[in-house]
């Protein structure tokens, strides 16, 4: 199994989720994060104090799927999350040794 | 100049006598006295100072929070900024030329510029039984809140600069004339005998219709009816609701222009109509198969307040209850059933609540004023005739607001573009237009 | 009917004379005048209009925020909804039959139904020196806030429907009779000469005891004393505290029913007692080995306000300081030491603060009124006798509230279940009962 | 009784001609009159009760939110606690010895202790046309807010205990004497004929300078000018701004001590000056190449309110506009250009706004009062002479505040250390000093 | 070493933490996340606008332990986090190459 | 490639980011988390109810870099995040199978 970790633009989340559901993905976990990268944040000024925020709000998706599906998940993610402009984000793929569904105790791909 | 307002007070009393309205009949001593030797009544003045403060509290922080809470986090701060800026601009315009246009006696639709920059007023000027500066201040807050009400329709996409241009034009060609028609001696509605105790036409119908025109001209928000646009803080909306209700006593009971029985009547009606409207909205939700909600209760509060505004001194407490409940249910149906079908994007439902409940109130007052319905109207009060007058006045107000605001928004659009770029809209107006965030937790 | 209230004013003055209270002695002209030719005093009316608005501000947004901030995020919105709905229902019930039960002169415990739907009142009716509609409005807000106070004990688990059923029954069988006993001519406590300036028994002891009964009937929250139930926003609780203090001047100084020396005395006492109580609570925390806290300060503010309520016109500023400080420390000890041992789950400490400080105030007023302690009592004022009266009145109020609220909660439980399901409680009442979230950041 | 106020108003105008002032000249007449037939005017009393409540609302929740919103989340609660505690302590000190020092007629700089613990005041005492207890309460809130204003400079690092020590000393040696100088018969500035309608010197210059001294003694916050110290909630700051503006009418129009034309003039000026100042700040931002911001607008509101405070009854509405705008732009330049260069860390810009705009107002009133600029000064009013007096009074106030607060802070530092440990500062004062969090979402 | 990544119901956190402490686990890291899966969210309505949230609040636990302990951690997690109803969550296990305690520079299992 | 997962004290974030930028790291993702470990939280008391929070606010950094850079990243992290006092946090290193830049579709180290 693979853990697919994608960092995307927040407003793309709905689109991405729909695209992945289309692939048959039944679950994923989403976290609000702050990204530091090439994309620069807005400058904020409060009564003359200027703060150039280099952190941009992003959304992180964590999704475990079986090895076979992984390439298509990555591809779908890349297509649905992309806007073509800087800061679109990254996808990372890691190996997962084991998966368990807490409710039933099922393990492996059955747990997904 | 003092004469103007004396006349204003007299006319009020006179027309009240003519139309057989109990309200002013209840204050004959006051009216007479005022006409003879204009002196300040400290009790009336105390109440009008308080009322002015209360109306300001309705705007800042009241209305700004009510609207702001309904928006997404990223646009909260822009709403607060819009309300603040519009309020301040309206105040400056009011003392510069607004008061002159609204409260000099020149024609049925407009005053003239003879009192530009308040040039005929001094600290000693008296209006009725209160210092004229207090009257001007009180009315100033009305101009400000009406303009600020419109902002709710435009939220999450209107450009700050465009809003400022709109405000100045709209106040001048829409609000001041309508205020003149309703409240000035010689005003069009005033002379027709239309009932409007505290500004149902000038304030609520006007703001509602102007907001509708504005959101149609602006177009829908990105994601409207597609993405989740849930309110970022109903807590803030609730605080706003509370402050609006609290402040509305300045608005309604303050419109009696003194601390007498008229104010007392307006107060109790502003309590009962509102309570009934809040309950009615939540019951309507339940009947429609949903859960009774906080935003429903708050919307009901506003609908009730709006509906009772024209009728605050022209109803009994139980007439007010019926009026509030009816207006609330109609506004509920409009907002939840009609609006999604019509498909326009009135962000904070300014038309759906202020416009709709305002119209219900403006028409309903013809009934609530009748003694048969517990109203203070005279024994020979004729519902039918009054209803005609009310329909006519309501229609004129709707039309005037629609045309005038159309012009104002169009000019603002030509000058500034009126709407922010897609990028700013997506990122939020807070950062895009003001370079600040509402929250940095 | 107008007679009723005239009598009310007279009785007030009379009993004041009898008991030798300086407060009313200071207003003899007013009392006389009122008895002779009932006319409106615009100054008194201005203050009573303002006072009514202030008490409304205590509830919305004041009390709702004070309580809501103490809850977990997932129940914030339900508290706001509860307070709003209870307030509106109380208002409608008040004008329908509440005012009649409370303020007609029929017996020592209840009025009668002769003034149902305010049928004897018009805009011209006068009560003392103010329009009767203003008096009714002022008292309306008292009914509403008392009922809303109870909600704090039930928070995070009470069912919305159950609360509504409770409110209607409880107002009818508990609040209106108690209000009659204390404030109506011929009322039980009134005739006994019990001192209660602004509603220590009717409002605070009553709400505190009813809340206690309610939380016992409801049972503890899931996780009480086990999970972290920390306040989700002391900022909101602080805003509520500020608004409660601000609004309380309408409550206390407004209870003088006019803008004279009685209101002035009530005002300064409502400042000094509260300041002392806030400081006392924080000092008590320090002495107990903890850090002085914001919630401590806020709790002290409320304890002080509650304690001074019955005594606002029956104390000097330094008697008020002592009363506030003593009540605050006793409430502190109750809430932090006794309550955990007793083990009941009074979510917002309605009994611990309103009940306890209310009882301290209701008894303490026997002392603060004494000229020896700087109070306005007459030279021959007898502390001992008054103390007996106060203890008796307090006891009756506690009993009446306990029994009546027991009935009201039991009926509500039979009809609706009163408590939400475990699932809803866990997920939060906001989503489960109202389908909304307080915040969507 | 109503006559009183006529006389009061007349005297105001008359004596204004004589001494070229309005306010203070009015006070001796008031003292005299009071000696003759002291009676209560219910209208004036109603307004002064309301004004007192309004000033309290400025502090709680107003000022606390205004400041608190500017801080980081971890210090929010400490600000709320500081403002609450300072307010309560100031109230207790005020009735204990403050009123005596400020308002007994002993010398030009101090009163004496003859009225310690208000021992000469009863509920029947009258001051002008209002109960003396109301006057004492009103002035009490002034003492409290001034002390609370100072807290803004010290935020995010001052120790709670140190603040308490400072408050008691500073009120005694700085505030009470300055209040005596300005407002008491025989007071130093009072006799010199300095214009200060509502406390520009006593309150704003004083708080601004004291805050500056305090933040210099405390030193900069860790991370100042290095880390992101962005406001955690401009929403809260906005709510505070709104409540400050709303409450300021109690402050300014209340300083007329009655509900007459003086209050009316103060009200309209408090509207127009503030509106102009808010707009001016945002325009200044735009001109400087930045986006118009909410915090800019709010800062402008406060700058305008501060500037108009000394001039509220000594200007016409358009003089007020100019004064507000000028003060706002100067404060803007100070805060954004001068302060970063000077490098001191005045957390909430108490000096930059209250100090700077207070000085501008205190000097500017010499101009706005001139009839040539639309002010209410007499025909023979001499700007030059008045300007000299204003400069002198301003200078003395600055000096007194600087020296006195230097002493108070130094003592507090010796006794308590004044500043929290580095660890507490990093973790936040909320947990470190009070063991609570402002938010547990 | 293993990284154990568990997504659970928020109100179960305390219980889970206690159970893990019982196993001798000295540390873990917790994040508030939103989960998308079989369990459906509540429907929210704001003035007629209906939003069926398909995101449910969850808590994510990240915990690194030595290989030997991993199975027992997974088991304990599954037992203490389970309620038997839908949405109980998942456990994923990944390999960790290296661990460092920042304070001391200790590495490997000593760093945990 | 490696995924470096560091849990640090929040106020150290700026310093750490600067240090990593110095290494040539162009991006990272930051999450607010709560840590459970040896460091104990403050005790909070609300009207007599005492809560000893055993959760301490921390910041989690996720950073993917090529294998060669990983040791230096870990080292830099350890140095810049350390204060020497308890609760400084941990660094974990995991293997990453694949990386994709959403905007361009670049993969592998080119995607970082
Ligand atoms: N090496 C990295 N490790 C972890 N996250 C990264 C890394 N580089 C970038 N990110 C994340 O991806 C987001 C987008 O990266 P950025 O460089 O701004 O643009 P782009 O994805 O178009 O190259 C960043 O905000 C950050 O959250
Ligand atoms: N494939 C997946 N990858 C990552 N997280 C998942 C995945 N499937 C489910 N989850 C997480 O587990 C949670 C519970 O899953 P769900 O399907 O609702 O119920 P159950 O765990 O009972 O099967 C989801 O809310 C989500 O956070
Ligand atoms: N085994 C672990 N797995 C995941 N995170 C851990 C683990 N142990 C500690 N942490 C994280 O590291 C933080 C610091 O750990 P702690 O034991 O308090 O101090 P130290 O790092 O100095 O040993 C914790 O708050 C937690 O977030």
Automatic annotation (TrEMBL), chains A, E, F:
| Matching Gene3D superfamilies | 3.30.70.120
GO cellular component terms, alphabetically, are:
cytosol
Q: Name one GO biological process term.
A: regulation of nitrogen utilization
Q: Please provide the record's keywords in A-Z order.
A: Nucleotide-binding, Phosphoprotein, Transcription, Transcription regulation
Instruction: List O-UMP-tyrosine occurrences by residue.
Output: 51
| Record bears the keyword DNA-binding | no
Q: Which protein is depicted?
A: Nitrogen regulatory protein P-II
TrEMBL record, chains B, C, D:
Entry-linked Gene3D superfamilies: Ammonium transporter AmtB like domains
Molecular-function annotations in GO = ammonium channel activity
Q: What range does the record give for the signal peptide?
A: 1-31
Tell me the keywords, alphabetical order.
Answer: Ammonia transport, Membrane, Signal, Transmembrane, Transmembrane helix, Transport
Top-level division of the source organism's lineage: Bacteria
Where found in the cell?
Cell membrane; Membrane
Q: What is its main location?
A: membrane
Q: How does it sit in the membrane?
A: Multi-pass membrane protein
Q: Could you state one GO cellular component term attached to this entry?
A: plasma membrane
User: Which segments constitute the Ammonium transporter AmtB-like domain?
Assistant: 46-439
| Sequence intervals crossing the membrane | 47-67, 79-99, 133-151, 163-185, 197-218, 230-251, 263-282, 294-312, 318-338, 350-370, 390-412
Q: Which family does it belong to?
A: Belongs to the ammonia transporter channel (TC 1.A.11.2) family.
NCBIfam families the record matches: amt (TIGR00836)
Name of the molecule in the record: Ammonium transporter
Its organism's taxonomic lineage begins at: Bacteria, Pseudomonadati, Pseudomonadota, Alphaproteobacteria, Sphingomonadales
């Amino acid at each position: 199994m693979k853990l697919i970790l994608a960092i995307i633009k927040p407003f793309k989340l709905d689109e991405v989720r729909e695209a992945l559901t289309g692939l048959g993905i039944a679950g994923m976990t989403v976290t609000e994060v702050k990204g530091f990268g090439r994309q620069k944040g807005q400058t904020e000024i409060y009564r003359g104090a200027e703060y150039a925020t280099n952190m941009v709000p992003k959304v992180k998706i964590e999704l475990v799927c079986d090895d076979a599906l992984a390439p298509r998940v990555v591809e779908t993610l890349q297509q649905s999350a992309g806007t073509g402009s800087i800061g679109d984000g990254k996808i990372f793929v890691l190996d997962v040794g084991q998966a368990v569904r807490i409710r039933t105790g099922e393990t492996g791909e059955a747990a997904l | 100049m003092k004469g103007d307002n004396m006349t204003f007070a007299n006319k009020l009393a006179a027309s009240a006598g003519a139309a057989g309205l109990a309200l002013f009949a209840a204050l004959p001593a006051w009216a007479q006295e005022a006409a003879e030797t204009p002196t300040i009544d400290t009790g009336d003045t105390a109440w009008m100072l308080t009322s002015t403060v209360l109306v300001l509290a309705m705007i800042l922080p009241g209305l700004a929070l009510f609207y702001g809470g309904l928006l997404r986090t990223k646009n909260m701060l822009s709403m607060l900024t819009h309300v603040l800026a519009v309020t301040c601009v309206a105040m400056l315009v009011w003392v510069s030329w607004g008061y002159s246009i609204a409260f000099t006696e020149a024609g049925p639709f407009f005053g003239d510029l003879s009192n530009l920059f308040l040039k005929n007023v001094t600290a000693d000027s008296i209006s009725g039984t209160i210092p004229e500066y207090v009257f001007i201040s009180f009315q100033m807050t009305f101009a400000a809140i009406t303009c600020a009400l419109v902002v709710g329709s435009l939220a999450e996409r209107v450009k700050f600069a465009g809003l400022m241009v709109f405000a100045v034009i709209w106040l001048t060609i829409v609000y001041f004339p309508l205020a003149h028609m309703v409240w000035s001696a010689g005003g069009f509605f005033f002379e027709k005998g239309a009932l409007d105790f505290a500004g149902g036409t000038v304030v609520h119908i006007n703001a509602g219709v102007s907001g509708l025109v504005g959101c149609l001209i602006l177009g829908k928000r990105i994601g409207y009816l597609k993405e989740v646009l849930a309110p970022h803080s109903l807590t803030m909306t609730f605080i706003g609701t509370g402050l609006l209700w609290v402040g509305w006593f300045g608005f309604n009971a303050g419109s009696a222009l003194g601390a007498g029985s008229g104010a007392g009547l307006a107060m109790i009606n502003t309590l009962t109509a509102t309570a009934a409207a809040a309950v009615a909205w939540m019951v309507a939700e339940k009947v429609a198969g949903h859960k009774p909600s906080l935003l429903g209760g708050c919307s009901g509060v506003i609908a009730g307040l709006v509906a009772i505004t024209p009728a605050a001194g022209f109803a009994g407490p139980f007439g007010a209850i019926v009026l509030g409940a009816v207006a609330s249910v109609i506004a509920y149906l409009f907002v939840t059933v009609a609006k999604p079908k019509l498909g326009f994007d009135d962000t904070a439902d300014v038309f759906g609540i202020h416009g709709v409940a305002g119209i219900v109130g403006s028409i309903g007052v013809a009934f609530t004023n009748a003694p048969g319905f517990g109203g203070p109207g005279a024994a020979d009060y004729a519902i039918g005739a009054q209803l005609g007058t009310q329909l006519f006045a309501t229609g004129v107000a709707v039309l005037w607001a629609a045309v005038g605001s159309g012009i104002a928004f169009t000019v603002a659009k030509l000058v500034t573009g009126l709407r922010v770029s897609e990028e700013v809209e997506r990122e939020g107006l807070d950062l895009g237009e003001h370079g600040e965030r509402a929250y940095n937790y």
